Amino acid sequence: MFNFCHVIVIILSIYHVSNARQLTRQCMANKGRCSSKTGSSCASVFGSGWTGKGKCCRNKPCCVFHCDDIQQDQLQNGQTVNITGTEVGDTATFSCKAGYVFLGNQSIEKKCQETGWSGGVIQTCVGCPETVINFRGTTYKFNCGDFRFDQAEAFCKNQGGNITSIETEEENSFLKHIITLIKSAGGASANNWWIGFTDIKTEGSFEWISG
C-alpha cells in the first residue's frame, strides 16, 4: 500500500511540472512575461501598455506589451506605409510625402519594443513649403517662402513666436543641419534664411532682436 501511494505522488508531481512548463512556453510564444502576482493586472505589475494574454503557472497572468496605435495625423508630412502589428517584435515602416525627407532617410522602419516604438512614434519629414520640428523643448517652424526680413518677423509673430535668436552652438548646428536637409529635399528656392540677428535699427551695428 505504501508503494502504491508513493507511485501516485511521483506521477502527480511530474504532471504538475510538465503543465507549468507548457504554460510558460505558451507565454513565451506570445512574447510575454509571467506576472509575479496571482490575480493582479499586468499594468499594475509592469506598467502602462501591458495587458493579459493567457496564463502562466499557478494561474498567474501572462502579460504582453502593446505599442501605441499609430495615427496618421501624428506624422508631419509623412505616411505609414506598412505596419505588421503592435506587439513586441512587430514593425512599422514610414515614408515621407513627395518633396520631403526624414532626417537623413527617405523611409524609416521602427520596431515595437517593451518601451514602445523604437525612437518614438512621431516622425518629422523635412522639406518645403514648411517643416515644423521640436528641439530641446522649443518648436521651430521652417518656412520656404520668399520673405523680406520684416515679413519674416511678422510671419513668426502671427504664428505666436519670434524669428529665431540663436543662443548656443548646439542650436546653431541643429538649424544648419535641418536647413541642409530641407535643401537636399528640393523646393527651397533661396540659399538664405532669416534669423533674428539684424542691423535694422542702426546700419552696420548688428544685434539679436531678443536682446
- N-to-C series of helices and strands: HEHEEEEEEEEEEHHEE
Summarize the amount of helix as a percent range: 25-40%
Task: Count the beta strands.
Answer: 13
Strand order of the largest sheet: 4-5-7-8
Beta-strand fraction estimate: 25-35%
Low-confidence stretches: 1-22
Count of helical stretches: 4
pLDDT averaged over residues: 77
Question: In words, what does this structure look like?
Answer:
The strands form five sheets. A four-stranded antiparallel sheet has the order 4-5-7-8, with no helix packed on it. The chain has a three-stranded antiparallel sheet with strand order 1-3-2. By secondary structure, the chain is of the alpha+beta class. The protein has four helices and 13 strands. Strand 10 (130-135) and strand 11 (138-143) form a beta hairpin. The protein is elongated. The longest helix is centred in the first third of the chain and has 28 residues, at 2-29.
Brief digest:
By secondary structure, this protein is an alpha+beta fold. The chain contains four helices and 13 strands.
